[in-house]
Design goal:
Blueprint lengths: L2 H4 L8 H13 L8 H13 L3 E4 L8 E5 L4 E8 L12 H15 L8 E8 L7 H7 L8 E3 L2 E3 L10 E10 L15 H15 L8 E8 L10 E10 L2 H22 L2 E6 L11 H13 L20 H5 L4 E2 L2 E3 L10 H6 L3 H23 L28
Parallel strand pairs: 3-4, 3-5, 5-11, 6-12
Antiparallel strand pairs: 1-2, 2-4, 7-9, 7-10, 8-9
Amino acid sequence: MTAETTALPGVSEHLERLIAYSETLHAHPETAWQEHRAARWTAELLEESGFSVETAYLGFPTAVRGCYGSGRRRVGLIVEYDALPGLGHACGHNLIAAMSAGAAIALRPWADRLDLRVDVIATPAEEGGGGKIELLDAGAFRDLDLALMAHPAPVDAPRAEPYAVAHDHVRFTGRAAHAAAYPHEGRNANDAFVIAQVALGLLRQQLPPGTRVHGVQTVGGQAPNAIPEVTEGRWYTRAESLAQLEPLRRRVERCFEAGALATGTALEFTPESQPYSEFRTDERALEIYTRHALALGRRFDAPAEQQTMNRASTDMGNVSRHVPAIHPYIGLGCFPVSNHQPGFAAVCVGEAANRVIADGATLLARTAHEYFAQTPGAGPLGAGAAGSAPAAGRRAGEEPA
């Protein structure tokens, strides 16, 4: 066995380029469906690395697919690169992009030996837009044998356990009037929002455990001496599964209907995307990832209350219902600073971020390498892989996609 076949995938020779790519994304944040520069920079990185690249993938202007190899088995490394409005890369999607692209690049030398095609699928609009769900419906993930990505967090947490979530846009339409001279002529759309939020606050006592309801009013009126004619907001409803989500969402909608009924305004309660699903973890891939992570010096012993980023909803959950997948969280060591805070955006560049890129890309690549090396029909098993493994197949009890 040659030195090449006994080696394990790594990213040391590509790390400087990956860090530069991540820092460029971080310095130029783009929100959901607007990731035009991010898509271009991702395509350029993949083309430089020998991948064949499709831009505007499946008709989505900010989606990209890069492919390397021509094997019968296919692994997908999933890129996210959208940022948060007003917060930039406070969820660390710049690091997700660098880890997934880096892992794909690291897998190139093994593609032929493992009868593998390496796909990088760069997906828009994870932060509320459901980009992966739209791509899934268009067939983007249909032919994958395994889908991998890792997400930055305050601490390491290997298993994704996200809530299913519905994203809704709320709009009340009333009638404007002078607030002092003719208030009785108005229909106050802001009062409708107040009543709805009071109803939601009272509803929370009766919500099942493991549910979340939260949102923000984005339009509240124009002037204090004018009865607000239009108010708007965005509201999220979360539950343990899609099956539990829809009845809960209906209860939330009734709270907004109460606001409209009480104030004589009209309500529009409109989905912003398809609901995000709970996650189905591929246990064999997760075991491989966890074992290599421990060997690399990652630790999973942080207190449970610090690991709860693994409950955050993701449209990767929908992908996991059709393709064997994992979505581990990799720690920046920054707790109590956590995702969706300005301080988290700050730690998504620098020394800790660079280690996350190096470790995350390496771990995703090594997970794919061992997963397919253990599959019947693959080439020789590289050093560092477990000796024998169960035959390849879908998770127990799962129907074909």
